[in-house]
C-alpha cells in the first residue's frame, strides 16, 4: 500500500476498519477487446464488487459490521464509487450504506470518454497479434511487455457502459430517482488542475482548442478569468483554474445538488489548504490528490522529514474525524449543512451548505467554514452546455 493511504489513524483514533482492495486497471481491467462480450469488459469494476462481497462475508472476523459499510475513493476511485451508486436500482440492496467521492464522479462530464478500442488495436499491432484472435495472442504476452507498450504509446483503456457495472446514462439515472438511496459526501480541491496543466502558457490557444466547438464559448471563458485578479497571475494559473472548475468543481456541484434534488442526503466540501510537506513542487498549491494525507492522517508517513504545521495537524484531525463521522452515520452527515436543507445555488436559492476545509479568504482554517456554493461556483454556468450535451439532461 502507498503510505498516503495508510489507514492506521482511522483504526486507532476513529474506531473504523479500513479495507483497501486492489483492482485491475488499464487493459488488464478494462480491455475494450471486441472479442469479449459487453459484460466482460469492465473487469476492474467486477474486482471491486468481488471485494465488497468479500467484506460482506468476512468483515465480522475483524470486528466489523457488514451492514455498516461506507465506500470511498479519490479521482478514478470516485468514478468507481459513482458507477456503483448509479448501477444499483432503487429497490436493490447494495453492499454499502454510504459513499464518499473525492475529486471525481461520472454523472456529469465536460466531454465524453473516447472509445478505447483503438488502443486495443494499437496494442495488438505492437505485439504482432494480427491473427484470428487478438485476445488469445495478447493474453499470452508477458504483462511487463504489455505495460511497457501502453506507457510508451500512451494508450488509454476506459470502462464501457455495460449497464451492469456502469450505466450508459448515470445523470439521467440519478435524476429519475431510480437509484438506491445512499447518502453521499463529495468534494473537490481548490486547484485540482495545477498538476494537469504544467507547461501550458497560452490561454487563448487553450480555450480555442478545448471549447472551440461551441461558438462564442472560448471568448466567454477567457473573459471570465482575467489575469491579475483573484490570484490568477499567469496564463498557467488561468488554464489550471479553468481545468479545475470544468473538470472537477462545477461537475461536482451538479452531482451533489442533483443527488439532493431527488431526496438523497448529500454533503459537499471544498478543500483549500496547502502545506510544505505535501508539495512535490512549490507551485502546485492545492492540487489534485493533495487532500489524501489530510484525510488519512498520513502526512508524517508521506514526508517524515518536514514536520507538520499546527494548522495541518488540526485540519487533518478534523477531516479524519469528519470522514469517520460520516461513515458511522451517513444519514447524519460529516458535521455541516447538507445540500438542499433549505435550497442551494444550483437549485435556485443561496443557502450556506458548502463546507470549506482549510483556508477561507485571509483566514487559515483548521476545521470547516460553511459558505454559499455561489461563492466559488459563480463561473459554473459557463459550462452548462458541455454538461448537458454529454449527460443528456437539462440543467436549470
TrEMBL record:
Coiled coil: none annotated. The keyword Cytoplasm does not apply. One of its GO terms (molecular function) is carboxylic ester hydrolase activity. InterPro entries: AB_hydrolase_fold, AChE-related_enzymes, CarbesteraseB, Carboxylesterase_B_AS. Keywords: Hydrolase. Pfam families: COesterase. SUPFAM superfamilies: alpha/beta-Hydrolases. Its EC number is 3.1.1.-. It comes from the Eukaryota. It is an enzyme of class 3 (hydrolase). Residues 4-329 form the Carboxylesterase type B domain. Belongs to the type-B carboxylesterase/lipase family. This is Carboxylic ester hydrolase. It comes from Viridothelium virens (Speckled blister lichen).
Amino acid at each position: 500500500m502507498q503510505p498516503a493511504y495508510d489507514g492506521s489513524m482511522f483504526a486507532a483514533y476513529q474506531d473504523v476498519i479500513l479495507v483497501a482492495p486492489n483492482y485491475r486497471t488499464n487493459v488488464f481491467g478494462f480491455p475494450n477487446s471486441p472479442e469479449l462480450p459487453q459484460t466482460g469488459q469492465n473487469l476492474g469494476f467486477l474486482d471491486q464488487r468481488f471485494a465488497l462481497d468479500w467484506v460482506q462475508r468476512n468483515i465480522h472476523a475483524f470486528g466489523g459490521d457488514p451492514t455498516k459499510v461506507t465506500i470511498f475513493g479519490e479521482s478514478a476511485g470516485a468514478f468507481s464509487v459513482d458507477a456503483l451508486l448509479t448501477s444499483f436500482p432503487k429497490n436493490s440492496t447494495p453492499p454499502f450504506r454510504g459513499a464518499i467521492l473525492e475529486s471525481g464522479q461520472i454523472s456529469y462530464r465536460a466531454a465524453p470518454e473516447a472509445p478505447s478500442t483503438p488502443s486495443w488495436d494499437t496494442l495488438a499491432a505492437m505485439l504482432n497479434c494480427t491473427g484470428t484472435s487478438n485476445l488469445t495472442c495478447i493474453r499470452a504476452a508477458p504483462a511487463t511487455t504489455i505495460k511497457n507498450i501502453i506507457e510508451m504509446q500512451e494508450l488509454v483503456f476506459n470502462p464501457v457502459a455495460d449497464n451492469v457495472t456502469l450505466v450508459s446514462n448515470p445523470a439521467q439515472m440519478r435524476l429519475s430517482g431510480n437509484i438506491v438511496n445512499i447518502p453521499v459526501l463529495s468534494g473537490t480541491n481548490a486547484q485540482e488542475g495545477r498538476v494537469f496543466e504544467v507547461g501550458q502558457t497560452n490561454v487563448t490557444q487553450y480555450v480555442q482548442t478545448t471549447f472551440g466547438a461551441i461558438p462564442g464559448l472560448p471568448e466567454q471563458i477567457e473573459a471570465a478569468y482575467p489575469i491579475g485578479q483573484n490570484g490568477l497571475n499567469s496564463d498557467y494559473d488561468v488554464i489550471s483554474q479553468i481545468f479545475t472548475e470544468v473538470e472537477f468543481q462545477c461537475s461536482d456541484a451538479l452531482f451533489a445538488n442533483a443527488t439532493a434534488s431527488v431526496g438523497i442526503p448529500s454533503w459537499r466540501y471544498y478543500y483549500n489548504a496547502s502545506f510544505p510537506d505535501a508539495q512535490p513542487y512549490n507551485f502546485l498549491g492545492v492540487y489534485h490528490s493533495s487532500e489524501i494525507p489530510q484525510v488519512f492522517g498520513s502526512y508524517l508517513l508521506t514526508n517524515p522529514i518536514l514536520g507538520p504545521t499546527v494548522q495541518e495537524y488540526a485540519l487533518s484531525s478534523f477531516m479524519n474525524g469528519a470522514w469517520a463521522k460520516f461513515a458511522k452515520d451517513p444519514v447524519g452527515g460529516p458535521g455541516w449543512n447538507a445540500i438542499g436543507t433549505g435550497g442551494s445555488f444550483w437549485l435556485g436559492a443561496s443557502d450556506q451548505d458548502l463546507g470549506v476545509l482549510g483556508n477561507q479568504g485571509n483566514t487559515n482554517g483548521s476545521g470547516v467554514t460553511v459558505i454559499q456554493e455561489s461563492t466559488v461556483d459563480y463561473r459554473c454556468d459557463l459550462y452548462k452546455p458541455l454538461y448537458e450535451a454529454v449527460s443528456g439532461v437539462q440543467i436549470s
